[in-house]
Amino acid sequence: MAAPTPHRTDDWWRDAVIYQVYPRSFADGDGDGTGDLAGVRARLPYLAQLGVDAVWFTPWYLSPLVDGGYDVADYRTIDPAFGTLAEAEKLIAEARELGIRTIVDIVPNHVSDRHPWFRAALAAGPGSPERELFHFRPGRGENGELPPNAWPSQFAGTTWTRVPDGEWYLHLFTPEQPDLNWAHPAVRQEHEDILRFWFERGVAGVRIDSAALLVKDPALPDFEEGADPSPFIDQDGIHDIYRSWRAIADEYGGVFVGEVWLPDAERFARYLRPDELHTAFNFTFLTCPWDPGRLRRAIDDTLADHAPVGAPATWVLCNHDVTRTVTRYGRADTAFDFATKRFGTPADLDLGTRRARAAALLTLALPGSVYLYQGEELGLPEADIPLDRIQDPMHFRSGGTDPGRDGCRVPLPWEADAPAYGFGTAAEPWLPQPADWARYAVDRQSGDPDSMLALYREALLLRRAEPGFGDGPLTWLPTENGILAFRRTHGLVCVVNLSDAPAALPPYERLLLASGPLHADGTLPEDTAVWLRA
Hints:
Layout: E1 17-21, H1 23-26, H2 37-42, H3 44-50, E2 54-57, E3 61-62, E4 74-78, H4 85-97, E5 101-106, H5 116-124, E6 136-137, E7 160-162, E8 168-170, H6 185-199, E9 205-208, H7 238-252, E10 255-258, H8 265-270, E11 279-280, H9 283-286, H10 292-306, E12 314-316, H11 325-328, H12 349-365, E13 369-373, H13 393-397, H14 442-446, H15 452-465, E14 475-476, E15 483-487, E16 492-497, E17 510-514, E18 528-533
Parallel strand pairs: 1-2, 1-13, 2-5, 5-9, 9-10, 10-11, 12-13
Antiparallel strand pairs: 3-4, 6-8, 7-8, 14-15, 15-16, 16-18, 17-18
Helix pairs in contact: 6-7, 12-15
């Protein structure tokens, strides 16, 4: 294990490109149909060639996988489906030798119902110290037959489950994910120990799931959707927790990125004060439609939200919860909202691909860090999962109306002509791959200079080599309607055409990269972006 290092001023995270690995679907090393750490280790050269600075792993811990690993039974054990703790330590070290840092995922709001703490709480009964680690309450009604309150679920359905002795326990997600009581000192101590455990194994950072949900109003009052303040989102006491976490991270030179879904910009920025989290995900940009006015507003609002606390923005087009960019940008409604996801929504994938290529250059030219979800660099579309193969609890808890998130979690295609497209030796991966995915395979795209993979590789190479990218100022340039153009330092200019007509480019010395070919007269086609050196 690595010894703690003194506090460092290394701020690599301010402009890093961080690749998100969903371990079940990245690469299968042992041939059982499920991605694993052996598969990731074998593909580390691919990530190095791609040019990313760090890799964020969604949970790889022991888990029943009711919610894709976000139901954790033991934070100090790797799930056997993925490998062992020794393999994780080797992976962290091998990645670092290639210049790639590792970020792990922590889920502090809840644990699995298989976690030893929760099993002990069920066995101990009402009024026991074991139950104080969770939110157990008697029910309402004449015989306690009604739940303690009517809080809405993050996954639809109820937020309370009754146990045989009559008490109810809180779960903002599924019943298999009981919420922890963060007012209890043992809960805080356990998570501080978990942070140290992983920092001592060489991780560079921690992504915090559902970061604004930990602290609840102790009275557990009733709540109407949209009421402010919420009794379970963004409670003021949460900041003391993150200040104590930041002190631990500083001991190891580690960083945090929080999943913070908040509409209030001022309250969002509080999580990014210098003694709390380093960064937080930017959902304003993630959910924004392919619209020039709204994209510019999202960029401006993001930079303005971060400026008061001096934190860098993060930019992301897709993740393991969100419809793939190629599909989303090919639809009539190019925004993203969980509430509007439905089966059978048509998409023009050619249009979506052009826009996704342009969006890649837009995103990588913005100030701050970028998160790249696995498969986005291949231009993967959302996959249609047969009803009998869907595993995501969001689908089942919606009564079957929500298609769930499995469509963006399908195993990656590595080799066009291999079984399971080279994902592994199993004929059938844990989620089915579409029959036409050979064209997206890494080996086929690697030999095509016009592929999405070639575009990302060139963009990341330029982003690292050319001055002007990364953290720093952004200045908008005057343009016609439907055109976004901005200048960074050292003469770097990014222009994106979201209009319905070709656009003239500003004067420039050199064309660094284009998401698609220019017209013969030098104008920029619709749904195309360029990087220029002016």
